[in-house]
Amino acid sequence: MLKRFRANNFRSLLNVEFQPAGINLLVGPNNAGKTNLCYAMRFIGHSSQQPLDAALQKAIGERWNVTNLYAPEAKNLDFEVECDLQYQGQPLRFSYNLRLESVRSDARTETAVAESLRVVEETLNASGGQFADTVLLENHAGRARMLHERGFVEKRPGAPFYAEASAPQTATVLCQLYELENNPRAILFRRYLQSWSYYSFNPDALRLPDVARDDGALLSTGANLSRAMYDLHNQKPRLERKLIEAVRELEPRLDLFSFHAPDPEHVHLFAEDEKGHHFSTRSLSDGSLRFVAIAYIVLAAAQQAETSGLAPLVLIEEPENGLYVGQLKPLLQRIEPDGKLGQFVFTTHSPYFIDLFDNHLEGVHILRPGVPSSVLGKPDAERIKRLLKDMPLGEMHFRELLG
Known about the structure:
By secondary structure, this protein is an alpha+beta fold. The chain is built from 13 helices and 17 strands. An 8-stranded antiparallel β-sheet has the order 2-1-4-5-6-7-8-9. It has a 6-stranded mixed β-sheet with strand order 10-14-15-3-16-17, covered by helices on one side. Strand 11 and strand 12 form a beta hairpin.
């Protein structure tokens, strides 16, 4: 579970630290930095599985305006991750620090010069059991060393505790690790970062029958929903039944999902009622499709946590769009507030969605715009509890009383 995330010199974020609970809400006016904070976490997740420039492009959709424009004296980008995971039943605290250099490249548009990222420093430490803030990997501008974890734990005489190597600065060492029995804890941490996901749904993408051949998961825009549901139908029918039960809270006539796959490149999704009437994604509302996607994400995250032991971090932008917020309440109640079956972060502008968090005040975070940096804070929980006697949480946000 993520305990702390820090981003420095990433877009509007200068030394911004986020300490999430199990279920979280990011609120604030437009251009306050909510999406930038989500993008920063999304970037770190992608950097654990692909080169830095590709991770940046996938995370924010461009390679310019990466560093903070109002702090030209800040030369590097810094990220810190602290999380609690379990390895073979043993609790471990991981600390990951990544410092990057932004280098202006020749690629440009008419208005901006592309930035390319290089590793300056990277460290991964573990604490717990036989590990006491022990360095698992270290990388100084391409000079890397990795701990031989098995030799360290077994205290083998003459065991080479650290293997040294050169590494390209265009990717993190974490990204380049081989999955060997010598470094299972470092690999565990990498798998955790790879479980992080981000969603900002596009109704047209949710309706696409096009199959993303290399990825059976739901994509960040909602594309590949038909393929993800088709795989769920064929591979995890019990989970599909839970999904149908959840969606019935929105659409009680739903009896089952069916599919038409005319070729390997397309899967068409249909909802059916008890009389066998078919409803294509074109006949479902934007809100209904969004609800299906969110329900799929919530249930899939819980199953992933139960089967792999890794509770994923899930970021969802403005889930209430196109939906009657009251219908989201029972869906959010399916999320375990301790985060053990998935840690969720939502952004919103809806006071009614904010109202759903009056029992989760520990997860409410407020971002405010500022120069040179966005400012992240938390409301005073005791004060908010007193105010709740007179007005709902969303009204407090509207009146700027949250803090």
